[in-house]
Amino acid sequence: MKVAAIVGSIRKESYNMKLARYIQNRYKHFFQLEVLNIRELPFYDQDIEAAPPQSVIDFKVKVAAADAVLWVTPEYNSTIPGVMVNAIDWLSRVDRVMIGKPSWIVGSSMGMLGSVKGQGHLRDILFASGISSPLLPGNEVYIGLVHEKFDGKGELTDEPTIQYLDLVAENFVKWMKEQSRLKGLQDAK
Length: 189
Description:
globular; 40% helix
């Protein structure tokens, strides 16, 4: 299974990027995760949406080719970061590559709530008509106090968090198999 990861923090030492890389390495026996570069995307502009720059074309091709999308979000001003909104704007226009594409959301913050407000907004956006992405239900991953859960080498070391991520990753794989089975039944009709 191929999964595209969209990380809403573009800073060099981003905890959410470390989280995406941790998921990429730890669960490589479950799925192939490619962390996409949203730093290179220009601001969404309707004037160029029909003939976008190559960075947008490449981004959309990778999302379209993936079986699912992993959204890894911090929380900025009680919502998702602008760079993530920009990526969603590109995905929701013209060929609308997210429609029907399954999604899984995780996120972290240095605060206690671990991006809970941002993830709530992201869920609302992913349900919107331009996206219409089915979401992994009941497996919310809010990693609070994230700066205390990674070591100096960027490795997640908090055992309860690791155990919970293991469970959610297994649930994600089971859910994806069910999504695939249901799609096969729909295609057969």
